[in-house]
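User: For a reading group we're discussing how well predicted structures match intuition. Take Probable membrane transporter protein. Before you show the prediction, I'll give you the sequence so everyone sees exactly what went in.
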Amino acid sequence: MHFYFYDCFLFFIGLIAGTIDTLAGGGGLITVPALLFTGINIIPALGTNKLQSAIGELSATLRFWKSGQLSFHGLAIPLFFTVIGSAIGTITLQYSADQALNKIVPWLLLAILLYYYLFPNLHFNLEKRQLPIKPKILPWMGTVIGFYNGFFGPGTGAIWTISLMQIYKLRINTATIITKPLNIAGNITALSIFISGGQINYFSAFIMGVGSFIGGQIGASLVIYKSSRFLRVFFLIVMTSCVFYSFVKYYNIHFV
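Assistant: Thanks. Here is the predicted 3D structure of Probable membrane transporter protein, as structure tokens, for the group to look at:
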């Protein structure tokens, strides 16, 4: 009974996280604590999360590509730099026992959230639907965000979405779609290093991955067919929840 409870728990966590991650990013803020809850240590939990996350990202990417919403125009060089950044971040993690980043992430997400609550109309009303011909800043973004993805990861999708909206003035639907191949490149790179180090619980990753794949399809459909206004509201709700949860989790806040 205990065994099946964890199976069902991980499946539904993967389903919810896959949907949320496709819509607004931040699915890792749900899945990593859930894996830790089952008793997996931190680095294997991050490796297992990469595998299930890659499955969900692949699901959403294929959905966007088949629908004609996703173009890889201008992404070749940024994808390469994202891979490099992720590899460096993941290798650094293998030799690091310092979990100080756990304390930094909640504050980073809080700063992003406050920025969008204070200046909501600067970003969510944007209407650009594609990247410029030569997105010169994007490779550097790939290096930095890729490093974070490899070293820790949770919230990477949201950081990608926000960065694309901020720098290239893209509407949230477009930024969300472009985020997927960039994020999956970082995830797969990190995943290959975790696999080589034997730091993945494959059974847990498979159970969560099935849920994440279904969630990716659901989330992709919502991105394609829902308005920017809907995604704006959902984005802020998810970000608020992630910020609250990350403070509770990583600062051991208890409510009496």
